[in-house]
Specification:
heterodimer; A: 626 residues; alpha+beta; Beta-Lactamase; Profilin-like; six-stranded antiparallel sheet; five-stranded antiparallel sheet; 20 helices; 38% helix; disordered N terminus; B: 202 residues; alpha/beta; Rossmann fold; 6 strands; 42% helix; globular
Chain lengths: 626, 202
Amino acid sequence: MAEVKPPDSRRCSYFFLYDGSKVRGEGDPTRDGICYFYPEETPLDKQDLLCGQLAGVGRCVSELSSSAVRTLRLRRCKFAIRMKEDLFWALGCSMEVPTVSVRELLDHLIDLFCFYNGSVRQSYQLNSKESLAAEWARCLAHVLSGPSELHCIFQSVRTVDLTNVDPLLLLKAALILQACQRCPLVLAGCVLFRGRVVSTQMPPQLTTKVMVHESDTYSKTQRSSGASTPSADGGPVSSTAVFLTPSELQFLQAAPVDKTSRSRFTPEKDASPKKTRLSRTLSDTPSLESESSRPTSCQSPEKAPFSPSMSGSEDSVFSPAPSQSAAGSPYPSPLSPVRLFSNGGNSYETVEGALDESHYHSFYSSEDGVSQIHSEGDGSAFEENLCLNGGASGGGATCGTTPEPRGADCGGDPLRDDTTAAGDVGVCSRKAEGHKAEMRQPPPGSCAFDSLEESPLIPMTLYTHRVNSLVLALLVEPCFMSDTASMEEVNHSSLASLNGLEAHLRAVSSAAPGAAGPYLFAHYDYIQSTLTTNVSGRPGGAPEHPFVRATSLLHSHFFDTETLQEAIIRSAGTAVYGTRSVAQETYFQQHGASMRNSGIPNQQDSAFSLPSKARHRLLKHGVNLL
Amino acid sequence: MTARKSLLKVILLGDGGVGKSSIMNRYVTNKFDAHLFHTIGVEFLNKTLEVDGSQVTLQIWDTAGQERFRSLRTPFYRGSDCCLLTFSVDDNQSFLNLSNWKKEFIYYADVKEPENFPFVVLGNKVDVTERQVSAEEARMWCQENGDYPYFETSAKDATNVAVAFEEAVHRALAADDKADHLIPTDTVKLHRKPRSATACCS
């Protein structure tokens, strides 16, 4: 049920937010600048010391190199760093955690905070330090609450066990979401069952953020009373204010949903809801005649329709034909990305480009200079591609065109962590040298930048409707909650199906999971940000630890070396095989195989049979390595 | 008499496209949507009614009519208190399939006494002008198969929908009463003997 566990100290030793603007003069105490420090029980002196040192080093290095610092090492701790104006964040993890994962954790944490609280600077103007400290604690708990260490290495979205659920039920969930989108105030949504995704129309990053609210409300209802258990009829509906980045909004609006811009301007509408309705029948296409003639205020030609990546094939099959609607949904809000970019399509690009560039000059990578060259060349090529698809479209949108390994994740930036590279670990790999940067190009409009850079956040509302263990979560326009007609429409179109889906999924999930085989595996899908694994992550999972460790090392290597496709990492007793493609990463360890390993290359070495074993074994988990 | 059931499960069965979902939506939300997608598996809505002064929650289960959804829907037949066999008056095949639906229901719902189980038959889409099934034919079938009540409904213009559900509720409650009446008479005898025996001993 996506319970929030206390942060795992292995995964996070320190986290703090430091506001440099509070400490200007020589005599100003450092602690005035500390907005939040985890662990909260850390003695103030130590807090001062750490904040002062890291912020000082960070500031110094960034001034010298005129680029942002992304990672710092202090003794046995690895700190991901983020700086924006006077704000300074640091998240410290043990050295075992891959650098890329630490950075992703920090980016995700900040994004999460901004999603529920708006921009950091503004929220500190509006709220007390204490209440925001509670917010940081909440976000931190969620970011670190993955069921296993693997979920910490791969920031993944948890989904229902797809091998166990009838695909028709996934289709059913996707149809519920589409039916809700017939209401023009509904942007997109996802269906969750017991804290796991059944279907989503949102990019993985956004889905993860939405799930936080779901698990919060769930634990709240669990705690508050056993008596008022949600009943199937009506179901408790809740809502909360959230903030989207322009690129997230852009992505959601780019999805092929038939909506009229008209009803946005006049929410009282009823002008022609029938006509604009999306048929739920497969063969039907939305009637365009009345709307297509309408001139739209947005001329952006770029909005090619994309299927949200997560709902996969169902969506691409069952989505209606691309309609005028995506291009015709300008917001009344002046913050609308349409307005932002329509008059200066390039402006965003330039900002992105500059960012990318600065990203490559980082503390560590500036040593080798290679990355810098790549950043410029590849960056521009990518931006061009981007421009075709939509000036400022979100990371997820690019999934449609460019298979990009770091799909929609945050801060998948190209800083190379040379400090943890090969060297001391015995990696035997078919590794081709030659670093190319295009694969690790940070996703354009990656939310990490949105929330921190100039782009303003757009207020939205997160509406959730719970039916027992099933939750329908929708991102809606803020006016939705006061529009009873729309609420009723959404409720009517979804309630029966939600009831049914809940009944179906409950029946499915009661089936016991099959016993794990004599092997361990982990399979990460970049596009959907999903992790499939038989690693339990239970506290007593000591035998799993070497596998997790090897996976973490290999993951770092894959990240550092784009051309690396397969690798085996081994000790005297066992070996772990890792392979990756543009869309996925897979790790496999066979138990009980006697390792015939004489220390010199040997054809009889059983480690070399791992790839074929992995291919064979993982097929039944739905992982195709062919 | 024991307290009446407060939750009644009523299930709609029939060929795909005869209007089961529309009938349910019309009855519960009083809305009609001509563009509903096939139901996948099952869905349900609750409606609270007052019957003879007591509150009854009617749980209406709508099922997928298409053959390919069979394995998804059949597990949910169990525990039904009444079955609404539905066909479309403009589709003769859907009428001919009624017997199959009845068989499928009795098999999967594990009905103990099929001859006493309350079925109600609905001929939907009477708003359509070109009928393929006459009211007489339908009544005849109902009579021959167990004297089921028959309603000609239209989810589109709300004809007879509420009436049909009310009849279903009454039949279900009546069957329930009958069962209440029958089962205790059997069990009472079994239970009384040992009880009186212990009373004697002590």
